[in-house]
Amino acid sequence: MDTMTITKAGGAFCGALLVLLLGAWAGESLYHVGGVAHEGEEHAQGYAIEVPDSGDGTETADAEPEVPFEEVFVNASAEEGEKLWRQCASCHKLESGANATGPYLAGIVGRDKGAAEGYAYSEILATMDGDWTPENLSGFLLNPKEYAPGTKMAYRGMDDVNDRANLIAYLAEQ
């Protein structure tokens, strides 16, 4: 291997790199479709989807109407709620007085908020008035951070009203 072979290999590498860079530049100039969106980011859009406007500022989506929790709770299944309990069992116990990461949930339905013996509640739940009615539990399970801002419960919430009703029906039997 002599110096000329090394020079040829280096030249070939530089030539290939130059061809690739020129190809990338040509491709970008031919197919560039975006403008600057915000904070210097480029925005490209392939096609626009026309959405009919209802005129009153509301969405026209055919969303299923929200069924009131009270109506769903009447027909709730504790057996289905027991299946949902498994995800709660990682932080809560059903034995009275047996706190874990979260407070025990035996007798939670109808109990005062922040009243589990021996559990150090967050300030918001410790000072919140009222009882844990099925409706209050549903609101808390829907979005704990919104229902009680500052709560220690790190759960994102349960969107399905039927699942909430079934879980609360199961907890009401405990």
Automatic annotation (TrEMBL):
Boundaries of every Cytochrome c domain copy: 76-174
Gene3D superfamilies: Cytochrome c-like domain (1.10.760.10)
MF terms in GO: electron transfer activity; heme binding; metal ion binding
Source species, domain of life: Bacteria
Keywords noted in UniProt: Electron transport, Heme, Iron, Metal-binding, Transport
Signal peptide: none
PROSITE patterns, alphabetized: CYTC
InterPro entries, sorted: Cyt_c-like_dom, Cyt_c-like_dom_sf, Cyt_c_1A/1B
Keyword hit for ATP-binding: no
Pfam families per UniProt: Cytochrom_C
Record-given protein name: Cytochrome c
Organism: Jannaschia faecimaris
